[in-house]
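Data availability (excerpt). The following record was deposited with the supplementary files.
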Amino acid sequence: MYKELILFRNELKNKSIPKYKIIGIVSELLLSRQIFLKNADIEEFLSEVFGLKFKTYLFKSRTMVVARVTKEIIAMEKDNEYKNKLYKFVQGKIDELKDNEKKEKNQFDGWI
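Predicted structure:
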């Protein structure tokens, strides 16, 4: 997932990003069990990045969440606000994964 996050970050750096790329990036993030272990984590992400709140029944299925978020992204007109927040979120996840990899590698350095 780390390599995909790097690709997503590079795409989000561009000034003009087509909506279909944003929808693809968000869909990949929402469907990933490595990024969101529980469906409840998705609710927090959507409120922070997009300012979206949905009823609780929707969060029982990730595919339903992806469909609803896709519909909302298509309807949104202010792209720059959520693009910047999405970039910051992806950057934060990259940093977390990088730190976890360093910790895992350092555990066995003393044995070798």
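Summary of structural features: The chain is about 70% helix and 0% strand.
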